[in-house]
Design goal:
CATH architecture of the largest domain: 3-Layer(aba) Sandwich
Number of helices: 26
CATH class of the largest domain: Alpha Beta
Helix content: 40-55%
CATH topology of the largest domain: Rossmann fold
Shape: globular
Bound molecules: adenosine-5'-diphosphate, zinc ion
Structural class: alpha/beta
Strand order of the largest sheet: 3-4-2-5-6-1-7
Number of strands: 17
Length: 623
């Protein structure tokens, strides 16, 4: 019954026909008065889970959120949907804050976003306890910030439970995060003092995202070709390019600008003001491409990002999937491309152990975290080498079953050839076994290829029986083989300062004279030449939201985007907050004739119909 009403609310305010998988279960539990913990990947639709119940409750809902930009974005989106919402954080002046609090006391807002640090302040506590306004629900967004195991620990989150305890009525508490690990999950339940929470992990699959890993000889050149292709397909579409360091952000941004692209940049080394400006330029479609470190993105809800490129491999799958997941939140097709280079692995290894929040942890915990980080990095590296379906690899990492074929990743759309690498594998095992000390990957490769450098000669490694036995193999190929052996449990990486290779169980079992049978799957030569990642003609799909459109619809799509941009400028909100790309595509396909038709389109709620339908209808009818 309640859920039926929830669906009406979903349609009325947000214009969506139905809840997604997981959303309805969470909404239902909250409405029944049960605490919940929702673990959902980026873009799965967490906010709906607390916004819909908020609109149905008698009292108000507090949303605790770590980031100013996130609050601002969600509050604009709510206001655009006709919901009274506000935020209370340090971006307000004292005067604005007092006024917002006064309005809150008068019951003008249904939903209030608040930074965790505010909860303990006197003014806010007074409002929460004594204003007579009932707080029905508390939603804790990015709940993993409460855990020191996570990467975004925020001490303010530890104060939430105490705040809740001080309220005259305990509200229903719901927590949401995209981080799925056991430790973090446990911390959230314990530290937020959730009561017998309903916990659900919703599908991590984002089927509109295309995944590819590329290892081109010239990375920058490949990037430029990709971006030019994108420009031809869809002028004006947005994308993010992630780099590992500030310096590479600077370099790539500068270079792309020289090459004529519309780019801006974001990293922790810029002033607050410049960061804010560059972020807005991207969100408001004044610049199309954002080159950034991982400092960019948390709390950015821009739903029409059509590609996310990782110019460097990130440190683990959690970061990768979160960052890549910023593509295609509107559900329309989008691409996630990862460039792999061996130096990225080394760079990430250097970062491990430099954890800034470490002062709160003891030595044992630190050692555990370092060990875990190395393991995570190895799983990230395997992603770059697997020939399985990439989506399956990702989902399995996050603990979900998946079929071996998704049809929407590079590996699924590529023919692989099978290469017998038994000879090489055997040589590598013998080479490692013979050495007295353990060496890193590059040294092992040098031995096998018969290198005559100082490192090899000074340690007499040219005496190894395998010295030079694989001299015809390229470094890249040998790296691929070693990665495959790591993956299949023949080798393992360990080491304090820098990682060294040792034999793992699979290889220890083998007798000296035995060969280890192994097959390596690589993209067929012809595909490799086409630069890994771009799919053969014919199979190539348009990545843009507009991929479903015929030529004649494309023109209308561009026109509707122009209408949207104009309205967005008047309303001072980012264009995607007016309507998503996906909603515009549906308008092109359905071609609504009047407001009633318009309401049937996903993403069009009642309030927006009243406000904007006319302008869009005029454009549609003119065609
Ligand atoms: P998250 O916070 O989980 O990363 P968001 O709450 O930003 O994700 O939602 C991602 C996108 O999905 C938004 O554009 C949102 O409007 C859309 N969305 C959420 N729920 C639904 C639904 N039930 N049907 C269609 N679109 C939805
Ligand atoms: Zn696949």
């Amino acid at each position: 019954m309640e859920i039926r009403r929830a669906k009406q609310v979903l349609k009325q305010y947000f214009g969506y026909e139905d809840f997604r998988e997981g959303q309805s279960k969470l909404v239902e539990a909250v409405l029944k008065g049960r605490d919940v913990l929702g673990i959902m990947p980026t873009g799965a639709g967490k906010s709906i889970c607390f916004q819909v119940p908020a609109l149905m409750a008698e009292g108000i809902t507090l949303v605790i959120s770590p980031l100013i930009s996130l609050m601002k974005d969600q509050v604009s989106a709510l206001n655009q949907a006709g919901v009274h919402a506000a935020y209370l954080n340090s971006s307000l002046t004292q005067g604005q804050y007092v006024k917002a609090l006064k309005f809150a006391k008068e019951g003008r807002y249904k939903i209030i976003y608040v930074a965790p640090e505010r909860l303990a302040t006197e003014g806010f506590l007074d409002f929460a306890r004594n204003s007579g306004i009932r707080i029905s629900f508390i939603a804790v967004d990015e709940a993993h910030c409460v855990s020191q195991w996570g990467q975004d620990f925020r001490p303010g989150y530890l104060k939430i439970a105490e705040f809740i305890r001080k309220l005259p009525h305990r509200p229903v508490v719901s927590a949401y995060t995209a981080t799925a690990t056991e430790e973090v999950r446990g911390d959230i339940i314990e530290l937020l003092k959730l009561r017998d929470p309903f916990v659900t992990v919703t599908g991590f699959d984002r089927n509109n995202l295309y995944f590819a890993v590329k290892k081109p000889v010239d990375k920058y050149k490949d990037l430029v070709t990709y971006l030019r292709d994108k420009e031809k397909e869809l002028s004006g579409c947005s994308g993010i390019i992630y780099c590992l360091t500030r310096k590479s952000v600077e370099d790539i941004c500068y270079q792309l600008r020289l090459d004529g692209f519309s780019v801006t940049r974001y990293h922790a080394g810029l002033t607050d003001e410049e960061r804010r400006k560059n972020q807005d330029d991207f969100i408001y479609d004044r610049y199309q491409i954002m080159v950034a470190t991982n400092a960019f993105g948390m709390g950015i809800d821009k739903s029409d990002v059509r590609f996310v490129i990782h110019y460097n491999m990130p440190k683990n799958m959690e970061s990768y999937y979160q960052e890549a997941g910023r593509a295609g939140r509107d559900g329309a097709p989008a691409e996630c491309i990862l460039y792999y280079e061996p130096s990225d692995v080394r760079m990430n290894q250097m970062f491990i152990g430099n954890n800034e929040n470490n002062e709160m942890l003891d030595e044992t915990a630190k050692a555990l975290i370092t060990q875990r980080d190395h393991w995570r990095l190895s799983q990230m590296t395997f992603y770059c080498f697997t020939s399985e379906c990439l989506r399956q690899y990702i989902l399995r990492y996050f603990g979900e079953e998946a079929s071996g074929y998704c049809g929407n990743c590079f590996n699924c759309l590529t023919q692989f050839e099978q290469i017998d690498i038994s000879k090489e594998v055997t040589a590598i095992i013998r080479c490692v076994r013979e050495n007295w000390t353990a060496y890193g990957i590059s040294t092992i490769i040098d031995i096998l290829r018969g290198a005559k450098n100082q490192r090899i000669l000074s340690k007499n490694l040219d005496q190894n029986s395998q010295y030079g036995t694989l001299s015809t193999q390229s470094v890249t190929r040998l790296r691929q083989i070693i990665q495959e052996m790591l993956y299949q449990g023949y080798l393992e990486l360990s080491g304090e300062k820098y990682p060294v290779i040792r034999l793992a169980e699979g290889a220890k079992k083998l007798a000296d004279s035995e060969t280890a049978p192994m097959i390596l799957k690589l993209p067929k030569e012809q595909e490799k030449r086409e630069s890994a990642g771009s799919i053969k003609k014919g199979k190539r799909r348009r990545a843009g939201a507009a991929s479903a459109l015929r030529e004649q619809d494309l023109e209308l799509f561009e026109e509707l985007r122009a209408v949207r941009k104009e309205i967005a400028a008047q309303e001072k909100v980012p264009p995607y907050i007016i309507f998503s790309d996906k909603t515009l595509v549906l308008m092109c396909l359905v071609r609504p004739k009047n407001a009633a038709d318009m309401l049937k389109i996903s993403g069009v709620g009642e309030y927006k119909v009243q406000k904007y339908a006319e302008k869009f209808l005029t454009a549609i009818l003119r065609q």
